[in-house]
Write a structure and sequence with these properties.
heterodimer; A: mainly alpha; about 65% helix; about 0% strand; globular; B: mainly alpha; two-stranded antiparallel sheet; 5 helices; 2 strands; about 70% helix
Chain lengths: ~140, ~120
Amino acid sequence: MRNLYVTPRAVLTGFISVAVGGFLGSLLRGWLTRTTQTNHSSFTQGSFSWHLVPWALLLINAAGVYLAVLLLGRLFAHQSYLDPTRLFLITGFFGGLTSYSGVFVALYAIWQVSHLASILVGLGGLLSGVLAGRMALARTGRHQ
Amino acid sequence: MIGMAIAGALGAMVRYLLELIGINAKANTSPWLTLLANAIGSFLVGTAMHSLVIVNGVVVTTNELIGFCGGLTTFSSAFAVPLLFEKRDRAYGYFLIFLTPALCAGAFFLGLSVHN
């Protein structure tokens, strides 16, 4: 079957869309998390502190899931993965804005002082993602 | 911060290339490749937990590597794409959502153990 959608031009346009979106998303994440970012001083021994919880990143991640569900469920409901706007926003911007690895860096810093707190914060992050996604799902009209 | 954003853009581009592997005739890809990008990013960030990483003689600071991994991994797509599966695939979607952190945590600890 002749492939009508995946052309070299679409792949290249997508590559640029992802690069620009990823740059802007990463920049915004860096700026929003600048005061709460896990750094080398987070790895010093001590007792659990609420300052170790990556609040900004957890909030960004939950908001990212919410907006991505709304966009994918409504605006991009009939667009393919290679749609340049979809690649710019979903794969690039929200992909760069949200982070899975950043959560593990913060969880590891908490793990040094309390294994239980690390597991609870991790489960909290997972739950907030599911809840945010389900709240957005209810607004897409796709299914309840 | 610009350096981390450039690293993040590179990470997102690598994730895009990974997801392209699964592209089908209708120009859609597989959420398993997003999971793979998340697992690779988690592994790499695990290796960065021990100060500096040297790749081919070039010292990559942890900030740049963390920026790269931040772009390579994604939280939004890992949840949003499986949540939007059709009704009959809902259980499969939740399976993917809960499998991702388990595999990524494993990859992170594997990355940590590289230096030990």
